[in-house]
Known about the structure:
By secondary structure, the chain is of the alpha+beta class. It folds into three domains: about 5-70 and about 375-410, no CATH class; about 75-140 and about 300-375, no CATH class; about 145-295, Tick-borne Encephalitis virus Glycoprotein, domain 1 (Sandwich). About 15% of the residues lie in helices and about 35% in strands. The chain is built from three helices and 33 strands. The strands form eleven sheets. Strands 7, 8, 11, 12, 28 and 31 form a six-stranded antiparallel β-sheet that branches. About 30% of the residues are buried.
Amino acid sequence: xxxxxxxxxxxxxxxxxxxxxxxxxxxxxxxxxxxxxxxxxxxxxxxxxxxxxxxxxxxxxxxxxxxxxxxxxxxxxxxxxxxxxxxxxxxxxxxxxxxxxxxxxxxxxxxxxxxxxxxxxxxxxxxxxxxxxxxxxxxxxxxxxxxxxxxxxxxxxxxxxxxxxxxxxxxxxxxxxxxxxxxxxxxxxxxxxxxxxxxxxxxxxxxxxxxxxxxxxxxxxxxxxxxxxxxxxxxxxxxxxxxxxxxxxxxxxxxxxxxxxxxxxxxxxxxxxxxxxxxxxxxxxxxxxxxxxxxxxxxxxxxxxxxxxxxxxxxxxxxxxxxxxxxxxxxxxxxxxxxxxxxxxxxxxxxxxxxxxxxxxxxxxxxxxxxxxxxxxxxxxxxxxxxxxxxxxxxxxxxxxxxxxxxxxxxxxxxx
Length: 416
């Protein structure tokens, strides 16, 4: 190899090792970048020149820079919308133009329209498109169709001196003065509005009780908007007990409750859905043990949960939950050949193959971890070793150029 050739060989090596230092610098810079994958450089030798039996090499070149995909460490966070993929797969995000990108960085948050987006505003994709909770700001209420009361009615009680009113409508005092015990239970109409039902119990025999069910008259009758009267809303019923104080359901008469609310439509709680199971008659003060009903008011959105299967579930103030979407993951035949686009986003290439989509924790896809982020796979100690190695190689090749230049100068100064 000529002196000029050695200069060219060394200068090519300077370019290759300079680029390798840039790769190492990029890795170190992204030590704390969520979802970042360490870049790895590969060198290859240049085609040598053969003159007879002498083969002269022409140095090295930077052949490729790849990003081997390894699982990064997961770090927990207090944010439920911070997500990580544990195992195979990438999150799918779409930019405003509809282009799909793929990423392992799961720093998502709700935007002003209720979509889950990454810091660039790209929408996280689910099985039905954008994961959106904006349309789920409220959860509808539910009509009460079943009611259960469990209580003790005092076996030693005596019947009040006044009878129940003979009219359907009467004042609250007229109703209560004719009863031994009362209990108010809240139910919900078709629109989720709350209404109070008053249950009155009156001793009618040694082991029997009569009961009445009342509602506010002004919630049922538009002609008396300011009335404080109570209206009877069920045929009088009865509860019969055995001598040892247990409820005799076969001898009791439980009746339907029928309601026609001014603003909440009609409502019926049938006798079969009005349950007094657990009610007893003991010689103890009358008391309510428990009460339950199956209705509830509308609820406002209060938060999210995201499980390992990617189900995004909304939580509402009325205690209900609803699945708002399911996150979709993507994978590729060769993830190392994805094309990096910056911001830890990737696009597929002919070498990586097209995206294959599926649900988390199924079909070889990893699981979604909520409240966690996948950290960079950069090993700082290893990068410093690579930096020092590349630096030494750069220095040596620069020395080759200096030496060759001196040799060239010496040759030029030779005198005959």
